[in-house]
Amino acid sequence: MTTTGLLLAAGAGRRMGLPKALVHDEAGPWLPRSVRVLVDGGCPEVVVVLGAGADQAAPLLAGLPGVTVVRSADWSTGMGASLAAGLAALTGDAALVHLVDLPDVTAAVVARVLAAGDDAAALARASYDGRPGHPVLIGREHWEGVARSAVGDQGARAYLAAHEVALVECGDLATGADVDRR
């Protein structure tokens, strides 16, 4: 199975005070780190969706092999638009959707979720102590439905709630905590 990493990094980061693609901490910028997590976890190619701060963020990806940048024209309407733009740019059998603002998610989490599915019908997601989170593995058979249901900041939430999704426990590897504030 060919799985492409799909990194959503288009948000304005209003609570953070700067676009999510430009956030960094003591370990460095989150954007290239998130790409490396996907690659090291088993995604040979990564599509990065940018929006807010795209012109400043794109250079952070220079020199990273296998990265394609997609700009979401409607990023300000919410994660759904960025998810749909990313899915439209994909090829392959599946996408592993990850968010740039999950800095403690590691390549081991990515690898574990990837191991949960091996075809275009795959639908799985990381969970942290039983709480569903990211990354989410979405087989090609689901892309159209996910894109149709991706509205506002809901992303794939409604689609995933209406379908059987394999939960892959990763609480021993990370918290999966979404970091929205400094």
How many domains make up the 3D coordinates?
A: 1
| Helicity range | 25-40%
CATH class: Alpha Beta
Our Rg estimate from Cα atoms comes to 15 Å
Helix-strand sequence: EEEHEHEHEHEEHHE
Alpha-beta content class? alpha/beta
CATH fold label: Spore Coat Polysaccharide Biosynthesis Protein SpsA, Chain A
Numbering strands along the chain, what is their spatial order in the largest sheet?
5-4-1-6-8-7-9
Overall average pLDDT: 93
Superfamily at the CATH H level? Spore Coat Polysaccharide Biosynthesis Protein SpsA, Chain A
Poorly predicted parts: none
Beta-strand fraction estimate: 25-35%
Give the number of helices. 6
> Care to count the β-strands?
9
Characterize this entry briefly:
The protein is α/β, with parallel strands linked by helices and 182 residues long.
What is the topological layout?
Blueprint: E1 3-9, E2 24-25, E3 28-29, H1 30-41, E4 45-50, H2 54-57, E5 67-71, H3 79-88, E6 94-99, H4 107-114, E7 123-128, E8 131-139, H5 140-149, H6 157-161, E9 166-169
Parallel strand pairs: 1-4, 1-6, 4-5, 7-9
Antiparallel strand pairs: 2-3, 6-8, 7-8
